[in-house]
Amino acid sequence: MVRLFLLMLLAALGGNPHFVAAESLSDPQAIMERVDAIRNPQEDYRLNVRITSHTADSGARIYEYEVLVKGRDKTLVKTLAPATDRGTTMLMLGYDFWVFMPSISKPLRVSLQQRLLGEVAYGDIARVNLSGDYTPKILDQNVEGLGVPCYLLELTAVNERVTYHRILLWAAMDDCRPLKAEFYAASGKLLKTCLYEDYREAQGIVRPHRLVLKDPLRPGHYSVMEYSDIRVEAHPEKFFTKEYLNILRY
């Protein structure tokens, strides 16, 4: 009878173990895996990303990308707009990242920490594996986080090649949805803050569709990342090779 009840409960929750009540979670790794499952599909997927960069003294700059993700360590980013940058592609394999430009014969190797646009780093658009890239620790529970009780987690980088050395993350205790984060450099400097907004259903899970990234040292400087057309779909391995991207450029 107990087994039957558990099976019926799992079916009612969509057959997905990520939907077990978050209040039962006391293991920080389990919380982070739940956070990742909410942020992004855990299968191969694609989505469109629109980045709008705002500054205090100039107009907004808008870039648009198509992002293909395979597993947790392969990402292909195609630039869709502006027209002057169309054709530029980016490839992440593990912690290695290259930029392929039609006007340059060899790809440029960059780090995940380098800025792509405004407050957005290359790793923000390409590297999505928080639960694998960081060691989590629960600093506190039932803390205030945008009006709801939250876990406050400290995430420490597993190596120096990830995008940020340290992250403070507020995740709602009722379902582990991320609400806000602070990103720090190895020096301890606060690099940026992030708000996770516009929660809507995509691929059967309510996910954030807008991230607002702010520079704490430059008032009026912020970037907005908006996600759309999130779809689970398989991608061929050949898409995620430097040889294939070199062929596409010509």
Question: What do you see in this structure?
Answer:
The protein is an alpha+beta fold and 250 residues long. The chain has a single domain (21-248), classed as Clam (outer membrane lipoprotein receptor (LolB), chain A), CATH 2.50.20. Helix content is 16%, strand content 46%. The chain is built from 5 helices and 15 strands. The strands form 2 sheets. A 13-stranded antiparallel β-sheet has the order 6-5-4-3-2-1-15-14-13-12-11-10-9, sandwiched between helices. A two-stranded antiparallel ribbon has the order 7-8. Strand 11 (166-172) and strand 12 form a beta hairpin. The chain starts with a helix and ends with a helix. The model is unreliable at 1-23 (pLDDT under 50).
